[in-house]
Structures are given as C-alpha cells and as structure tokens.
Amino acid sequence: MSKERILKVLLAPHVSEKSALMADASEQYVFKVVSDATKPEVKQAVESLFDVQVQSVNMINIKGKTKIFKGRAGKRNGTKKAVVRLAPGQEIDFVGAE
After folding, report:
1. Are 27 and 44 contacting, i.e. CB atoms less than 8 angstroms apart?
2. First to last CA, the chain
3. Which of 45, 46, 49, 76 has the fewest CB atoms within 10 Å, i.e. is most exposed?
4. How far apart are CA 15 and CA 68, in angstroms?
5. Distance between CA 95 and CA 67 in Å, rounded?
6. Mean pLDDT of residues grouped by 10 in the chain (98 residues)?
7. Pseudo-torsion of CA 4, 81, 86, 45, nearest 10°?
8. How many other CB atoms are found less than 10 A from the CB of residue 90?
9. What is residue 97's predicted lDDT score, i.e. its pLDDT?
C-alpha cells in the first residue's frame, strides 16, 4: 500500500464518551475512516502513523438517516468507523503534550 493511501485511510479519531471508556478500559480506539477502507489498510495505517502494534480491527458501517425537510424526503450520508484493539501495554496519545 502506498504512503499516500496510508495517510488518507484514517479521517479522524471518533470522540465520544463510549470511545473514551473503551480507550481507558480495554485499549481500544475508534477512528472515522474512508468508506472503502479495509481492515488490513486500517491496521497498517494505525501502526505506521502512531508506532504501535495492532492486535485486531473491527469495522462498523453506519447507514445515513432518512430525514424530511419541508415535505421533501432526503438522506444523510453514511459513515464508516474502525475499532482498533492494541496489543497489551500499547497506548495512543492524541493530545501529544509532554
């Protein structure tokens, strides 16, 4: 996989209360990823960008909601998330403050 693709696979960390609890309790981190990303691509991207060992990757497809605005039906875009479990003792620091 090219270096350019590695940089484009991960869009952002998904920040929520549930993802923070997962990070503290079981060394799992949640990322928003591009819609055509695969598990091996996400694993390679996280390992190269954060210099950690990835144990497993789970993918979640979230369908866009159907909404009605002024009597017209529309649909929001769907998203894709990746839940990355790190090897024991590994950690990702998003703040980067020392």
Report:
1. no
2. 32
3. 76
4. 28
5. 36
6. 88 92 91 95 94 95 94 95 94 70
7. 0
8. 15
9. 46
> Phi and psi at residue 79, in whole multiples of 5°?
-130, 170
CB 62 within 8 A of CB 80: yes
C-alpha triplet 80, 81, 87: angle, nearest 5°:
150
Which residue is it, tokens 């696979």? 9
**C-alpha distance from residue 76 to each of 34, 48, 69 (Å):** 16, 32, 12
Find how far residue 87's CA is from the centre of its chain. Answer: 17
What pLDDT does 46 receive? 94
Answer for the pair 82, 57: CB distance below 8 angstroms, yes or no.
yes
How far apart (Å, rounded) are the C-alpha atoms in residues 40 and 25? 24
